[in-house]
Design a protein that fits this description.
By secondary structure, this protein is mainly alpha-helical. Helix content is about 40%, strand content about 0%. The chain is built from two helices and no strands. The N and C termini lie far apart (about 50 Å).
């Protein structure tokens, strides 16, 4: 009886999408988030990020 070996695909590496937003939300959850006055993300940058959420390259 011959046994055939089935090769499994290597696990896919997860690509960090919206890592800045993920970090911001993690800091909020931890209670260490900066106040808006000390934010490093401008309103324009945040809107630009929102436009690209879910878009594939």
């Amino acid at each position: 009886m011959t046994t055939s070996k089935i090769k499994k695909a290597p696990p896919k590496k997860s690509v960090a999408k919206n890592s800045l937003v993920k970090n911001i939300n993690a800091k909020k959850k931890a209670g260490t988030a900066n106040p808006k006055s000390k934010s490093t993300v401008t309103k324009k940058e945040y809107k630009d990020m929102e436009k690209n959420w879910g878009n594939k390259k």
